[in-house]
Fold:
Amino acid sequence: MSAAALATLSAAIGARLEHFQPVRGGYRAVVERVKMPGGAFAVVKEFHQPCEEWAREIAALQILPRSVLAPRLLAAVTDPASFVMTDLGSGRCVADALLGDDPHAAREAILSWADSLARLHSATVGHGEPFAAALADRDQAVQPARMPVLLDTAARGLDQLADRIGASVPAGALGRLRNLLPTDGDTSALSPADACPDNNIATPAGLALLDFEGAEYRHVAWDVAYLAVPWPSCWCSWRLPDDIGAAALDRYRDAVVLPYASTARFDNDVSRAAIGWALLSTSWFATNALGDDPAPSDPRIVAPPRRAMILHRLAHAAAGSMIEPALAEFAVNLHSAFVRRWGEAPLEYAPAFRPPHH
Structure:
């Protein structure tokens, strides 16, 4: 954390911030817990340079209603690109529970995640314009929705991948993928866009959501389908027992203040999103999976092999769908081509859900 960031943010909030404890660092930003006058703490995040992720996170935190369990934005500055937010402590996250040995604790953590997601969606349906305005204040080139670009990029990548591995592309499949689940008024809300099991923290008030670097305004089914895939953008993407995913989906449906969530259209859209994630994540991970499928470089990261993730998603989240037949057929073709290369590679359950003798 640079001295310039602390000094500039101190001036912005009118209180002296002091170095205390590094939280994490990465190629894009560093995060540090800092001391405030009177012994209170806050968290500072400094990006190495102004970027889309900096703009998205600040805009999201700026518009979040008080009912959402998440950090509160205290101040943000452009030079250096940084902001200070409230400190939610050092509680456990859902990933900690999934990697533990207590299935009940893991189940409760996932249900809490569903509650927090429902709270976020309930509070931000109809907030597309405020989010767009907050984004424009930071960077007018950044669009509120990222998913159209992600889907288009994935469609082009999957077309090339299919040619490489000898999988046929059904007529209309790539066009359908590009237009899956458009954003609209009554089914869209603010999303962290990376609601992974490690991007949250347990607090006395409930599970708080963290990391809004990818925040966007999009169809709620994209987030809810994280339970069905599961966790498509995360390293901690072990398999979940079907009854746990179903219970969490029911928990979301009961908690969210969104009439649409009680309709058959919602169930179909969650299935569509699961298909979309299966194909999107295949486009992300296929290069490494077709290579040596290396384990994570950080030994602390306990993640499943990419080949197992890809095969599971294509077979269970996408193949056999009657809702999106062209995409389902494409998933079958990709799955078959991968199995010819790799053989079967089952995805294991998260450690907390494995038999004791495993």
The chain is about 45% helix and 15% strand. The first strand starts at residue 18 and ends at 25. The chain has two domains: 3-86, 94-353.
